[in-house]
Write a structure and sequence with these properties.
By secondary structure, chain A is an all-beta fold. Chain A is built from no helices and nine strands. Helix content of chain A is 0%, strand content 52%. Chain B is elongated, with a radius of gyration of 24 Å. Classes of the chains: A mainly beta (149), B alpha+beta (189). At the A-B interface, β3, β4, β7 and β8 of A face β4 and β7 of B.
Chain lengths: 149, 189
């Protein structure tokens, strides 16, 4: 799982707005048999007979002066059983506005981007799994005023 | 029960015959039996509320805003443990202040302070925009107190019965009448 990002921030009203451009390469394998468990974080996800779809989402997690923990979902995708399990997305813009609750993005050195997914079974338990591999992204100290996003 | 003599024709005649011959004691017995079944069901429900920590541990999905994961009529099993943190990606069932209808959507933004105060934003998978339009006037975030529970498990279609009973009350009465008749007339051999 690899991600590359470039970014700059811009203020909107009174909150910081971050812009992130990313690549996602992920391999979510099809299983050969349906017997492996899929709630172990280290096991590859398997589209077995009881998996209807995966809800994938890219979330940014970081800490600010205002809030000890912030999580913002930047992008999501529904992967149905039978869809191509290999993701190779380049230069993606975030689907949702990356607003902070306050001005904590400016100069924030450590924003962690992680890919996670919610397994939706045909019937049964709904686990949330985090993919291995995450990327840490720093935001610059200054605001950008050019609108070149 | 001892049968008086005579040959009756047809099962329906049998049924009315039984009803007429049932004496008071048998009737009380049947009613008590029925009451016991209802009490047990209530106890199980209360037990679930205690175990899961949620005021409504089983909910029926009412709208299509979480499709294709959940459809109208699906059943969701919730937990609401106090120490469970609210995290992005989780499916929560919440109630907007002042409204009775629980909504099942996904958490897309979380801002948590050091003291444990959490505010979060939700959105239905199938909706274009987040839920701010659904919240109370002027309310921009949800808090822990708005949460009924987190979806941990799910069964498709099973909740349709509740929706049908809601939309077609005659069906509900018919079902109750049949159940009542069955319970009162059931014979224990």
């Amino acid at each position: 799982l690899r991600k590359n990002v470039e970014d700059f921030t811009g203020p909107r009203e009174r909150s910081d707005l971050g812009f992130v451009i990313f690549d996602i390469t992920a391999d979510i394998l099809n299983g050969k048999n349906g017997l492996q468990t899929f709630w172990n974080k280290n096991t590859l996800i398997i589209f077995d007979w009881n998996v209807k779809q995966l809800f994938l989402y890219l979330s940014a997690e970081y800490s600010t002066k205002n809030n000890a923990l912030n999580q913002v979902v930047l992008w999501d995708k529904i992967m149905l059983r039978g869809d191509n399990p290999r993701l190779s997305l380049k230069d993606m813009k975030s689907k949702y506005f990356f607003f902070d609750d306050g001005n904590g993005l400016k100069g924030n050195r450590n924003i962690t981007l992680t890919l996670s997914w919610n397994v939706v079974p045909n019937a049964g338990i709904l686990p949330l799994v985090t993919g291995s591999g995450h990327v840490s992204v720093p935001f610059p100290d200054t605001y950008e005023t050019t609108k070149s996003y | 029960w001892p049968r008086s003599g005579g040959i009756r024709g047809g099962a329906a005649m049998d049924l009315f015959g039984d009803l007429r011959r049932m004496n008071k004691r048998q009737l009380y017995y049947q009613v008590l039996n029925f009451a016991m079944i209802v009490s047990s069901a209530l106890m199980i429900w209360k037990g679930l509320i205690v175990i899961t920590g949620s005021e409504s541990p089983i909910v029926v999905v009412l709208s299509g805003s979480m499709e294709p994961a959940f459809h109208r009529g699906d059943l969701l099993f919730l937990t609401n443990f106090h120490d469970d943190p609210i995290r992005a990606g989780e499916i929560v069932v919440f109630k907007v202040e002042g409204r009775d209808i629980p909504i099942v959507h996904r958490v897309i933004k979380v801002h948590e302070k050091g003291n444990g105060n959490i505010k979060f934003l939700t959105k239905g998978d199938n909706n274009e925009v987040d839920d701010r339009g659904l919240y109370k006037e002027g309310q921009n975030w949800l808090e822990k107190k708005d949460v009924v529970g987190r979806a941990r498990g799910f069964l498709p279609y099973v909740g349709m019965v509740t929706i049908i009973m809601n939309d077609y009350p005659k069906f509900k009465y018919a079902l109750l009448a049949v159940m009542g008749a069955y319970v009162l007339l059931k014979r224990e051999s």
